Amino acid sequence: MKHVLLLLSMLCLVSLCPQDGAAQDWAQWRGPDANNHAATDIKLPFRWDVSTASDVAWRTRIPGRGHSTPIVVEDSIFLTTADVAKQTQSLLKLNRSDGRMMDQWVIHRGTLPERIHPHNSHASPSPAFDGTRIYVAFHTDDAIWVTALTTEGREVWQRKVSNFAPEAFQFGYGASPIIEDDLVIVAAEYDGEDSGLYALDSRTGKPVWKTARPKNLNFASPIVTTLSGRRQILLAGADKICAYNPRDGKELWSVDTATEAICGTVVWDDQQHIMVSGGNPKSGTWCVSGKGNHNVLWENPVQCYEQSLLAIPGYVFGAADNGVLYCWRTHDGTEMWKARLFGGGISASPLLVGDKIYIASEAGMIYVVAATPNRFDLLSENPSGDSIFATPVAIDDRLLIRTGIGVGDDRNEYLIAIGKK
């Protein structure tokens, strides 16, 4: 049996990454294949010291604060930030090769929400790029706004997507916009009349369709993939896992499972097992079939609340809020192993790079674990600042880490590139 497990593990590692992994841009949340897998030819160190010049290609101080993951397109890096003192929400442009700050464009000024969750930021959604324009979404002026800009910072259009003024809890916003063909897809879910999933024309910003969602606080980013030969938007929350047609927003199917509030993005494996985890009011991880009658396949009580899961062929990994890392078999939910990494506190989602998983904790540690289903193998622990909330990105043989150094009023934010200069 041990030999069989080892063989399965080796076969699994051969096919971990997407076959279309040659793409070297990271154009939106969760990357080119929407699964948080780095390109197959990426080579990263798995041990480093941020205080050692030889391990750091560059570091750039980021004004303000944000939890958005950077996108990397053409010769630039783009990420959003917010400055509470100046009451601004901005898009930043950095040089891709050396990290130099190229520009900062203020998108909104003086309209930040009065209250958000202390673990959230006023710049949590990641930007998206469609090959021509950058799209950024902000919660500001009691609404969700999307702005389209050229890569040189010229505003093409700006659109108020919906009102967004939660009554029960003022926790802010976090859903990233997603590009699908000529559409910008945005989730704006809260306990109000405008709660919904929206699609805008990417060229003009004009509304194309709206699908109503329950009046329910939810924070998940939608994601688009192809299952059973059909493109579909996947979104969990409001006690359901749902799929929608990207062209018109009509519901394709839904399953009554999960919980009310979900922050993580839905994931899937090569056998179309669809999984998500959440934690309010019910904690758990759930799996449904992506084909046939879309029935519930399994669930367990493990809570991965703010972070998304990470799926590989036949298996899924979850970094739970309590600091325990799990590996489950996707077709039946069998726990392959679990191991404690840290004492709790995680917002960033695990990232697959080759046969390794990179996991950032809120305390600023990045753990590197072998992506093997038959055993837990911790390869390294790498202090990378004092706080990490944004998911790292692997690109150009470098790991981009958005990290905070210092605490309180002495906290400064940096984007650090680990790897070759």
UniProtKB/TrEMBL annotation:
Protein name from the UniProt record: Outer membrane protein assembly factor BamB
Gene, per the UniProt record: bamB_31
Range of residues in the leader sequence: 1-22
SUPFAM superfamilies given in the database record: Quinoprotein alcohol dehydrogenase-like (SSF50998)
Boundaries of every Pyrrolo-quinoline quinone repeat domain copy: 124-338
Superkingdom of this protein's organism: Bacteria
SMART domains: PQQ
UniProt-listed Gene3D superfamilies: YVTN repeat-like/Quinoprotein amine dehydrogenase
UniProt entry keywords in alphabetical sequence: Signal
InterPro entries listed in its UniProt record: PQQ_b-propeller_rpt, PQQ_rpt_dom, Quinoprotein_ADH-like_sf, WD40/YVTN_repeat-like_dom_sf
